[in-house]
């Protein structure tokens, strides 16, 4: 019984890993349960029996990834700009393609839009917690503007712009973000 349960968990894990890879590589509507099953070396029936539907498979695969993402991001050092930037850049190096794929689909796939909106809320709260010392003494509109600036500077699109579009190395990207965040100190 124990071996059977372990085999079932290993199969489910393999299916989730392959589903996440495919949902990162392709638009949602182009991912088929047949392809997930083939890549996970199981039958489509096995995928359906375990997950029930493509939507349910997507949700479970993304939720598993979110757990890993949150554990990593929650380890960002509070008040240490360079450490926080290193943390978020490392996160995007691992998860940036996935985040960008989902963002590109939010307008047409409700289940993706729901996930993306949750990610936005998480990122805002991550910024408020991680950069709390940069927010000290700011109230109202001034605080909101500072948080918004930090959200933009640590956003996946900013990472993509620096790394992919402008071709900066990871180190150059981190230095650019640290300098930009530190330059916020002079604003009012």
Q: How would you summarize the topology of this molecule?
A:
Blueprint (H helix, E strand, L loop, with lengths): L1 H24 L7 H8 L3 H8 L2 H20 L7 H25 L4 H21 L1 H4 L4 H14 L2 H10 L4 H14 L5
Class from helix and strand fractions: mainly alpha
- Helix-strand topology string: HHHHHHHHHH
Straight-line distance between termini: 65 Å
Average residue-wise pLDDT: 95
Q: How is the biggest beta sheet arranged?
A: none
Point out poorly predicted stretches: none
The amount of beta strand, in percent, is under 5%
Radius of gyration: 19 Å
Integer count of domains: 2
Describe the protein in words:
It is a single chain. By secondary structure, the protein is an all-alpha fold. It has 2 domains: about 1-60, Homeodomain-like (Arc Repressor Mutant, subunit A, Orthogonal Bundle); about 75-188, no CATH class. Helix content is about 80%, strand content about 0%. It is built from 10 helices and no strands. It has helices at about 1-25, 35-40, 45-50, 55-75, 80-105, 110-130, 130-135, 140-155, 155-165, 170-185. Helix 5 crosses helix 9 (about 155-165). The longest helix is centred in the middle third of the chain and has 25 residues, at about 80-105. The radius of gyration is 19 Å and the shape is elongated. The model has no long low-confidence stretch (mean pLDDT about 95).
Quick synopsis:
The chain is mainly α and 188 residues long. Helix content is 79%, strand content 0%. The chain is elongated, with a radius of gyration of 19 Å.
């Amino acid at each position: 019984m124990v071996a059977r349960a372990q085999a079932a968990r290993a199969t489910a894990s393999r299916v989730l890993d392959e589903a996440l890879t495919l949902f990162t590589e392709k638009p949602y509507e182009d991912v088929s349960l047949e392809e997930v099953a083939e890549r996970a070396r199981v039958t489509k029936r096995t995928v359906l029996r375990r997950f029930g539907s493509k939507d349910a498979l997507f949700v479970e695969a993304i939720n598993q990834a979110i757990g890993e993402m949150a554990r990593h991001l929650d380890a960002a050092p509070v008040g240490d700009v360079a450490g926080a930037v290193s943390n978020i850049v490392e996160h995007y190096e691992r998860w940036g393609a996935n985040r960008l794929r989902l963002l590109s689909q939010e307008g047409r796939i409700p289940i993706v839009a729901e996930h993306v909106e949750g990610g936005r809320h998480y990122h805002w709260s991550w910024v408020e917690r991680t950069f709390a010392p940069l927010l000290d003494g700011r109230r109202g509109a001034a605080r909101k503007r500072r948080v918004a600036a930090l959200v933009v500077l640590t956003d996946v699109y900013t990472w993509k712009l620096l790394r992919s579009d402008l071709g900066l190395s990871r180190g150059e990207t981190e230095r650019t973000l640290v300098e930009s965040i530190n330059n916020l100190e002079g604003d009012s």
